[in-house]
Amino acid sequence: MTSPGSDSGTGHPGTATTRRVVAASFIGNLVEWFDYAVYGYLATTIAVVFFPATSPTAGLLATFGVFALSFVVRPVGGIFWGYFGDRFGRRSALSLSILIMSVATFVIALLPGYAQVGVLAPVLLLVVRTVQGFSAAGEYAGAAAFLFEYAPRHRRGLHTSVVPASTAAGLLLGSVVVTVLTSTLPPEAVESWGWRVPFLLAAPLGLIGRYIRTKLEDTPEFRVLAERESVARTPLKETFAHNKRAIVVAFGATCLNAVGFYTLLSYMPTYLTTELHLDESDAFLSTTIALVGYIGAVFAMGRLADVVGRRAMLAAAGILFAVLAVPVFLLLGPGGLVGITLVQLALGTVLTLNDAALPAYLAELFPTRVRYSGFAFSFNTANAVFGGTAPFVATALIHGSGSVVAPAWYLAAAGAVAAFSLLASRRIRTTRPTAPPPRTREEGSRP
């Protein structure tokens, strides 16, 4: 007997339900990363508003330092949201996380600057950014697990590619909003009040995403666990007891995603304007085009991941970045706007080899009982170490070495680490549950 709204005889949700699941995941993830985009794209302005007493370089480093520090809480958030999602359901965790993120982003728009309250201004900025980091820790892993557990087995790569696509869409929306803002307002207006406008948009977007999520049932796989009273009581403890190797591999595989995503898609406009002295509007235009290309490519790569396999694609992406990151970065300078845009498109497309396959691969590494916890902890720990620090490290490497190509070496190293991790994952057997999943001994079968 099939459940309401499912495809007859398959046990999978029907088309209408699947569309709502995809929409809920897409909008929620978009809102979460819209904030990260706006913060990164307005970094030079935020540096002036909150760190005016420093030099431009020091102010920029301080701004990216706050960006990085907000990631420190991500592993803690991963533990919390993993517990919440594995214990009480994916939908409940995702509905709460988007609410916290929306409120925190809205609060940034109301913060006083250094001119009004002095050193308290950057302190308040750090506090709010920390709340955002805590919230974001539950979004990527939760949305991926949600989509993975709803998707047909042969289309899990395509369905979970919605997560990186929506993440990039958040960056794209941020890029468009900031481009319009900086091209229509004089710099003085942007610094005095214009920078607050994008953050104000988070509230209505977040409420829409939350509303859609509350109208959905939890995933078929989680509902089966709940009905059998087989939900993990201590998910993180269970994760470490039975999935230590999977955590290590997941951490390593995520390194390229962390460094690549935040370097190429978030930090790049700042890099182009401050290091290559490209006009600000041109920098945002180039990044916007690259993001559109990334979104289109990531869906195609997600479908490809279902055909050729996740691990092969992830390993290929790591090797390509290890070998090509530096030579391709060297083409950014002399190519002009067209050349820079083409280079960004090329790098973004190679990154989709990794990003499209990663959500399904990480979800497959962990059994249903602890999928949220294993995914969230490993993914957020890697992003705390390598992702949130990427803009700061890139800026520090440039000014420490005197070379504008320095970020490329960081990308190459991340690619090498990811490729090595994937080679080490051969002995790990990924989970391939059907819907509804049978209960296993590992999942705590009861007599």
Q: Could you please describe the fold and organization of this structure?
A:
56% of the residues are buried. The protein is mostly helical and 447 residues long. Helix content is 77%, strand content 0%. The chain has a single domain (16-234, 241-427), classed as Up-down Bundle (Growth Hormone, Chain: A). The chain has 23 helices and no strands.
Note the overall shape.
Answer: globular
Low-confidence stretches: 1-11, 432-447
SSE class: mainly alpha
Number of strands: 0
String of helices and strands: HHHHHHHHHHHHHHHHHHHHHHH
Distance N to C terminus: 25 Å
CATH topology: the name is Growth Hormone, Chain: A
CATH 2nd-level architecture:
Up-down Bundle
Strand percent estimate: under 5%
Q: How many structural domains can be distinguished in the coordinates?
A: 1
Keywords: Cell membrane, Membrane, Symport, Transmembrane, Transmembrane helix, Transport
Domain Major facilitator superfamily (MFS) profile: 21-427
Protein name: MFS transporter
Membrane topology: Multi-pass membrane protein
